[in-house]
Amino acid sequence: GNRTNMLAQQTIKNLFATKDRSSFEVITMEQESDAPPLSEYFGFAGENTLLAWKDEHGLFAVDQYKRARPDDEIEVVYLDPGCNFLSFYTTEMKFDVLVQRGYDNSIEALSQAGLNAIPVQWSELDKLGVSMRSCVLLLNFLKTVSGKKLGAKGRAPAVIDVAKKGDSALLWGDRTPINKSKLPPPPPPPTPLPK
């Protein structure tokens, strides 16, 4: 209801509002009852670019956005319905869009809009009903101890992936070996119970 929407909007504003900007707007959108989650068929990318499926759900979402923000000069890139995509829209412009391989028209539309379409094999996960948005973790919002964003200003983002190599593990982001000698010793084996 309206009260729930107001609370959700206020929470989003409090979480994501930047201190140096005077306003942060949240737009509430309606969806059809049979629509997938909004983020699976509607998103943002690049500089003032909307991404949406070219079906009833995507067209409805774009129409609502344009009515809520009539003065925005926004470009709309329509993708094939069912095409999984993942865009990185943050305080910094990101032109990379992961897009499901096999949707050539969508890849071409993204490229024509000046976006960097990165085809990703996703057909097996799509058959299982898993979307990119539902399972891909975006690390762009994580901050390091120094307060700098990961992947910002030309630095390569740290990838949370560990590969075992001999007696040490290797973090791919910083290429820092983690020796097992620095780890605490394993606990002693349990003592057998008396018979």
UniProtKB/TrEMBL annotation:
<dbReference type="Pfam" id="PF26170">
    <property type="entry name" value="RESC5"/>
</dbReference>
<feature type="region of interest" description="Disordered">
    <location>
        <begin position="173"/>
        <end position="195"/>
    </location>
</feature>
<protein>
    <recommendedName>
        <fullName>RNA-editing substrate-binding complex 5 protein domain-containing protein</fullName>
    </recommendedName>
</protein>
<feature type="domain" description="RNA-editing substrate-binding complex 5 protein">
    <location>
        <begin position="1"/>
        <end position="148"/>
    </location>
</feature>
<feature type="compositionally biased region" description="Pro residues">
    <location>
        <begin position="183"/>
        <end position="195"/>
    </location>
</feature>
<dbReference type="InterPro" id="IPR058722">
    <property type="entry name" value="RESC5"/>
</dbReference>
